[in-house]
Automatic annotation (TrEMBL):
<dbReference type="InterPro" id="IPR015955">
    <property type="entry name" value="Lactate_DH/Glyco_Ohase_4_C"/>
</dbReference>
<dbReference type="GO" id="GO:0016615">
    <property type="term" value="F:malate dehydrogenase activity"/>
</dbReference>
<dbReference type="Pfam" id="PF02866">
    <property type="entry name" value="Ldh_1_C"/>
</dbReference>
<feature type="domain" description="Lactate/malate dehydrogenase C-terminal">
    <location>
        <begin position="134"/>
        <end position="296"/>
    </location>
</feature>
<keyword id="KW-0560">Oxidoreductase</keyword>
<keyword id="KW-0816">Tricarboxylic acid cycle</keyword>
<comment type="similarity">
    <text>Belongs to the LDH/MDH superfamily. MDH type 2 family.</text>
</comment>
<dbReference type="InterPro" id="IPR036291">
    <property type="entry name" value="NAD(P)-bd_dom_sf"/>
</dbReference>
<dbReference type="InterPro" id="IPR010945">
    <property type="entry name" value="Malate_DH_type2"/>
</dbReference>
<dbReference type="GO" id="GO:0006099">
    <property type="term" value="P:tricarboxylic acid cycle"/>
</dbReference>
<protein>
    <recommendedName>
        <fullName>Putative malate dehydrogenase 1B</fullName>
    </recommendedName>
</protein>
<dbReference type="GO" id="GO:0006108">
    <property type="term" value="P:malate metabolic process"/>
</dbReference>
<dbReference type="InterPro" id="IPR022383">
    <property type="entry name" value="Lactate/malate_DH_C"/>
</dbReference>
<keyword id="KW-0520">NAD</keyword>
<dbReference type="GO" id="GO:0016616">
    <property type="term" value="F:oxidoreductase activity, acting on the CH-OH group of donors, NAD or NADP as acceptor"/>
</dbReference>
Amino acid sequence: MATEVSIHLLDSNHYKEILHGIVMEAQDLAFPLLRSVSMHTELDDAFVQADIVILLDDILLQHKIPSLEDCIRQVTEQCKVYGSLIEKNANSRVKVIVSGKTFVNLRALMIMTFAPSIDSLNIIAMAMFLESAAKAMLARKLNMNSAVKDVIVWGNISGNSYIDLSKAKVYRYDSAIWGPPNFSRHLLDMIYDSNWVRSEFASVLSSLSSREHHCLGMSAAHVIATVLRYWYQDSPPGEIVSVGILSEGQFCIPEGIFFSMPVRFQDGNWEVITETKINEETQEILKHLAHDLIQVMSLSIYPFLLPASWLYPRQHLFRWVLSSFRGLLRPPNSPQLWPSWLIGPVSAS
């Protein structure tokens, strides 16, 4: 028996007309499984008996550049509101997907913090956009369709992340060697220009966080729908999916931070693919990515959530800020500007 879906759209009253337009477009689809679609602008009405909650970006970056401190404060305060409402109104087994382009890992952690009765296994951060973008770029390089699998996204989805190609495979590649549909070849064996992987590929992917609208529209809808399908109907057997989840110490990643890593979906749940082997170089990269993510948490207005041993002196944060927020706090095609409180020498505190 097919499951009908009721969709509830929430945004501020400022976007009421846009919400109304989306409702009408959804109704005009006349989709048999769409039971109802409604719009809400009052927070008290949010998430009532929700089985699935999808959180997109709330903090829209304007041409006026906010300070990093202000950005994190807004994000955290909004997540406190949403988390509390999810805790109060949603189904106790609700599944929460955190997506967008700003502070995705931090927002997932804050939602978990302020919705303490929700199983942490039911809160995930979306990394599939980066994964899909990497696959598409690799497919273009190989002049083939996007039959690329097992690309792994590690770390901070909307900040410092590592695209790991060591397990990546290509299927249906047009070459002298052919095989059945399940025949694959190691991707790195097919890309003979290793300099391209280290330079252009890495550079383009690192710039994704500065694309003003990269998490809007078809690509975002597609990856969210894909993850939901996997969550309820299992991911393809043997295939790696990258998801931001609460670390329990896998791969020597510190516990208690949301970190993107390889998982599989099965029987309505996900599990980390802990049998994934990583070399010493990758392990060192993961160590640095974890340190960077810890600094995101320590910069939030709720530092008491972190063990004291995680809080670094202030000068160690400066390197992370420069590497993670280049472009994020800057509108497109503008000169490189930084919040005034970040300019100048950074002293220990």
